Amino acid sequence: MAWDFSTDPEFQEQLDWVEQFCREEVEPLELVFPYAVRMRDPKMKALVDPLRDQVKARGLWAIFLDEELGGPGFGQLKLALLNEIIGRYGSAPAIFGCQAPDTGNMEMLAAYGTDEQKERWLTPLMNQEIWSAYSMTEPQGGSDPNLFVTHAVRDGEQWVINGEKWFTSAGRYADILFVMCTNGMFVVPRDSPGVEIMDQPRSHDHIIYNEVRVPLDHLLGPEDGAKVLAQRRLGGGRIHHAMRAIAQCKRAFDMMCERALSRESHGKIIAEHQMVQSAVADSYAEINMLRLLVLWTAWTIDNSSTQEARTQIAACKYTAAKVLKDVAYRAIHIFGSLGVTDLTPLQAMWAGSPAMSVMDGVDEVHKVTVARNVLKGYQPHDGFWPTDYFPAKRAEARKKFSDAMAADPDLVKYADYMERRSSGRA
Ligand SMILES: Cc1cc2nc3c(=O)[nH]c(=O)nc-3n(C[C@H](O)[C@H](O)[C@H](O)COP(=O)(O)OP(=O)(O)OC[C@H]3O[C@@H](n4cnc5c(N)ncnc54)[C@H](O)[C@@H]3O)c2cc1C
Predict the structure, then answer these.
(1) Contact at 8 Å (CB) between 180 and 148?
(2) How far is the CA of 362 from the centre of ligand 1 (A)?
(3) In CATH, what is the architecture of 9-113?
(4) pTM greater than 0.90
(5) pLDDT digits (tens, 9 = 90+) for 311-348
(6) Domain edges within the chain
């Protein structure tokens, strides 16, 4: 029987290297030049590229892509273990070639792109020579794709796109935009005439597509296939967010524990106060529950498919947001006044939890998916009583002992006595 929670020693060695590399190289870069990984300035690239080269030399670049999609094929479980480390640092995913929103877009390209499209966009995206964004949500609603109206009309050798998109992360920095239209998924160069990016909000862009023209070969996948591509894109991304959320939770937890052992109040180190212990104990259990859920889901994907694991992925998505919210809140609380400043990462972690609950599908929608799929495995009971109604079950169970009870009246007496007792009538 296989049931093993250990990590391959060789991969553990890689993880140890990643941990040290992030602590010694990535974190200092992030503290001094926070947006360096997202800047085109050659001076910033000169700081970032050597770090990327080290990652590539270790064979850890873009490990999210499966082998059949052109990646190294490490699988989701190893990716989860890696993300548990790099998710602590905002810049690390970009240094490891696995940052959102590029990862999901690359997966879509790898799965649905023609050879020519892959050469044109996937290869430079993999090398991070270009950046991408994903334009799906519209101002009138994001949760329900049936409300989307952005549309492409064919005009000779071109598609003409009209519509309005909202919350396209990093849209203004992207070289190409994956635009979900009611009749297909299109790749639109950001500098195309008619792509109008609003001033606000700054990080997640409001974009008008006004008579934007692209050649016919900028349709990705089949015509009318946008919803299938979107599912493919978002399915993987959701578990990646959950993997990185574990890292955030662990960071908040480490900070909480260190602080609990360092402060004194009312004659004790605060870690000796029982309510502080309760915060530590609940956080420990919740993080490990989340971690096991995510690793089990990653393992399921590796051993079946993203589609097969969709119920688990949905559960990871909203559980990650909840655990992050609760653990970060407890850590902030244990930090007291310092916790409510922005002098530590805690505020940003806590503020990140509502975003986790909304991005890539709101919690409610994922809960509906989980409940619906789980309920498919159940049947309603017959009659008034549930299957676990004791009197009916016990009557059925007595039949199993009927021969023995017929032969021995004492057994009947015992059984009757026990039955009265368990009904509270003994
Ligand atoms: C940090 C972040 C990054 C994002 N990046 C991108 C991106 O790169 N590209 C992109 O296209 N979009 C992006 N989004 C947008 C995201 O996809 C949408 O916010 C999400 O789909 C929800 O849509 P909405 O914001 O319009 O909320 P709505 O659909 O208006 O939902 C609002 C609320 O209504 C309730 N609700 C909605 N539907 C249901 C339901 N079926 N059952 C019960 N309650 C329901 C929930 O309480 C929900 O929170 C991002 C969002 C965030 C927060």
Answers:
(1) yes
(2) 5
(3) Orthogonal Bundle (1.10)
(4) yes
(5) 999 999 999 999 999 999 999 999 999 999 999 999 99
(6) 9-113, 132-220, 227-375, 390-422
